[in-house]
């Protein structure tokens, strides 16, 4: 994926569109991608993430303040809310990469819980925040793929 984004930037493409399913529902937003439209956010992603949020709350995994803050984020009607979820440093029980459960970021649990495939996009021309997230993801995961010149 890193090569595709770098190549798209080098080719002066305007954006990349893809489907987010399985782990992509969490990974793509951490790489700067957003639900393609506000409608996809509200009808496909936030609706199911909100249900999962309530289960975390009822299970005693969130403080009242964290629950209220997360409800506010999920209730937003714009797709930028996905980015607000991925930067939360709240840890809750969730799927472990090695199987079983582990403490994982709440944004991961909420975005993966949507259990639906949704269209995602990364605006390569007008979304500096998204491009910054992409570069941060590469640094965090020690990926070095310079864009072709």
Task: Quickly describe the structure.
The chain has 149 residues and is an alpha+beta fold. The protein is built from seven helices and five strands, in the order αβαβαααββαβα.
Shape type: globular
Oligomer: single chain
Biggest β-sheet: count, sense, barrel? Answer: 3 strands, antiparallel
Helix content: 40-55%
H/E order of the elements? HEHEHHHEEHEH
Average pLDDT taken over every residue: 89
Strand order of the largest sheet: 1-5-2
* Radius of gyration over all CA atoms, rounded: 16 Å
Percent strand: 15-25%
Count of alpha and pi helical runs = 7
Q: What are the low-pLDDT stretches, counting only 5+ consecutive residues below 50? A: none
Write down how many β-strands occur, each being a DSSP E stretch of 2 or more residues.
5
Separation of the first and last Cα atoms: 18 Å
By secondary-structure content and strand pairing, the structural class works out as alpha+beta
């Amino acid at each position: 994926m890193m090569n595709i984004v770098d190549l798209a930037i080098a080719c002066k493409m305007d954006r990349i569109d893809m489907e987010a399913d399985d782990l992509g529902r969490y990974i793509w937003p951490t790489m700067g991608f957003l639900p393609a439209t506000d409608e996809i956010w509200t009808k496909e992603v936030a609706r199911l993430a909100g249900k999962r949020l309530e289960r975390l709350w009822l299970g005693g995994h969130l403080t009242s303040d964290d629950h209220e803050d997360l409800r506010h984020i999920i209730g937003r009607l714009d797709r930028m809310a996905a980015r607000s979820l991925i930067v939360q440093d709240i840890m809750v029980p969730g799927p472990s990469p090695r199987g079983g459960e582990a403490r994982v970021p709440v944004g991961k649990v909420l975005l993966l819980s949507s259990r639906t495939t949704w269209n995602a996009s990364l605006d390569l021309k007008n979304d500096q925040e998204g491009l910054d997230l992409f570069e941060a993801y590469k640094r965090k995961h020690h990926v070095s793929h310079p864009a072709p010149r």
